[in-house]
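Weekly modeling sync, notes
Attendees: AB, CL, MP (scribe)

Item 1: holo prediction request
CL wants a bound-state model with adenosine-5'-triphosphate before deciding which constructs to order. AB pointed out that an apo prediction alone won't tell us much about the pocket. Agreed to run with the ligand included and paste results into these notes for async review.

Input as submitted:
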Amino acid sequence: MARSILLVEDDNAIATVITAALEDEGFEITHCTSIARRDEHVGARYFDVMLTDVMLEDGDGLQSLPDVRREAPEMPVIVLSAQNTLDTAVRASDNEAFEYFPKPFDLDELVRAVRQAADSRKEVVSALSHDAEGDGMPLVGRSPAMQSVYRMITRVLRNDLTVLVTGESGTGKELVAEAIHQLGSRRTGPFVAVNTAAIPHDLIESELFGHEKGAFTGAINQAIGKFEQANGGTLFLDEIGDMPPEAQTRLLRALQSGRVRRVGGRQEIAVDVRIIAATNRDLLPLIEAGRFREDLFYRLNVVPIELPPLRERREDIEVLARHFLAQAVDEGLPPRVFTQEAFEALSKRHWRGNVRELRNAIYRLAVMSRKDEIDNEVLIDTLGEERAIFTPEDDADHPDAGIAAALEQWLLRQDPPHGTVYGGALSAFEKPLIEYALRQTGGNQLRAAKLLGINRNTLRKRITELSIEPDRFARPL
Ligand SMILES: Nc1ncnc2c1ncn2[C@@H]1O[C@H](COP(=O)(O)OP(=O)(O)OP(=O)(O)O)[C@@H](O)[C@H]1O
């Protein structure tokens, strides 16, 4: 298919020359002479590249470029101008013009730039929205909901704006962060991910900002924090809603100043890091309850990207399933095909664990099926009937609703083998409980045992069995 160019130029002689040269190269040209017509065209259809003059019959083509950006954020724009001032060039680059050509320009050079711009656009768009047959790029799905996500992603590729990705667990928040990093201007730098929920609260600051030797018990050596590790690249802060208050304050300071101070250190170190934060919790109630700083929220929520749950984009389920089947083959599992009926059954399931649960299910089917063809019967044999367990949606007022929801997430993620569910689940809940008690008591086992109401020896035994390190909970000096 010919690639399409929108040419906005009110000098008809120049327009004729450019049109002829680009048509020779196989491009399809739409020509208009005003901002008003330009906006109609951009609103109505897709163009690979736009070429625009600055002084147009109804105004300044650059000044109104943000409107074009809103409509077609990823479309490269090449600016042609007779006003060869620094100001025009700077304004062109402020508007993220792909290239700027002062008139008179070399026609061959212009054609080369258009070709390059069209190629770059194709790369980004297809990289983001390829389907199961595509190769290598992470995000799969063509539902309108995912298209909006892709559009948001393309808006942040050429800048360092802070992004806040929200969505239920397993919807692909980390994958979005990786895609922004890989496709954006920081791709040659490091991508460092930190899961705030997985780090004991009193270690978060040292994990993020590093510490100096002797800053607290256990700080045997100096350590570099994730901020410094991500220098020149992207820092992905997952589960930001779980961050304790002191770490929030420190994070806010780092974001405001672009500098970090290691725990126990005096020196401020400049860091050049793009922040992408994510949360599967609604931060607004946490802000209202005083558990999340409002000013930090606004700092992080510069560009919000919301990932819809899988059940709200069911049309993506089949293409995702095909993608995971192909991925499973790449990883050495036997090739399988689904009957259409099985795809339909998959599409009707609830997928509370979102894409992660779907992925696990497809892998399980690929491994467990005795036949190459997966039909409805294999599906139910392997995945069971729709799992119906208590969820907060069923009874949000129940005092244990949160625990049931956490248990469900644990079951979906771990998918524990038959016969190990009881022991596995109890351990999974017992460990954070004991860690909570140790944290409360600064690592004092006697007091922790009293708080829990269990025997001190039982606590000691469980600490060993669950591989808990009580020293980690000793209070900083
Ligand atoms: N659109 C997608 N296309 C392909 N794979 C996806 C997509 N979304 C998610 N996945 C896959 O699903 C799994 C879960 O995704 P990811 O870890 O990014 O979710 P998350 O929202 O960050 O989850 P959590 O909140 O639990 O950390 C990963 O294996 C990821 O590769």
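Recorded for review: The chain has a mean pLDDT of 85.
Action items: CL to compare against the apo run; MP to circulate these notes.
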